[in-house]
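Thread: quick sanity check before group meeting

JM: Hey all, I'm pulling together slides for Thursday and realized we never actually wrote out the predicted structure for the chain we discussed last week. Dropping the sequence here so it's in one place. If anyone has concerns about the input, flag it before I start.
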Amino acid sequence: MASLLPSSVRRLIDAFASLPGIGPKSAQRLTFTLLKGKQDDLDQFASTLTELKRGTTFCAICHNIAEQDPCVICTDTSRDLSQVCVVEEVLDVIAIESTGAFKGRYHVLGGVISPIDNVGPEDLSINALERRVTESAGQIKELILAMNPSLEGEATALYLTKLFEPVELRLTRLARGLPTGGDLEYADHMTLIQALEGRRELKRA
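JM (edit): ok, ran it. Output follows.
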């Protein structure tokens, strides 16, 4: 079947299929959807892809993706300089910012420590975080470790905890537990443990 398709179509299917989360069938659907579109729309789509890397950079301070360096968060004087939320990826920044609840700054590691994938501390922006804390001259007072609750995320958080243990610095983790609207009977073992450990005392009238 593939041999019946023009080479340009096959190449685009292969390109889509190389993206995470997109299988061969989805790649075919995306390709033929574009093929049915107008040439002007395709040209615009191609132009947008071409400009994707050219129009972005990474902030030298927090390593977040941005249009300028430093990024708009690092140059925002209204943000709390004393708090830095350490996240795995850029998408984590977007997720936290969407809540509007955090007014500090960020540091994007660019992944997690994962020996299976040959990713060590030196492959992440951990050295940059260490320099940032040192050069802040005490301005940074708290690191919020916002790693995902995976084995790799836990290993990365543990590494950072040990790394900054000698430093006069508050290290905190995001609270984890039962989601709003969730039922106890459907909660997994680890979620229940975290919910119990992270319990808060209720204020009495």
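AS: nice. Residues 78-173 form a domain with the Dna Topoisomerase Vi A Subunit; Chain: A, domain 2 fold (CATH 3.40.1360.10). The mean pLDDT is 89.
JM: adding both to the slides.
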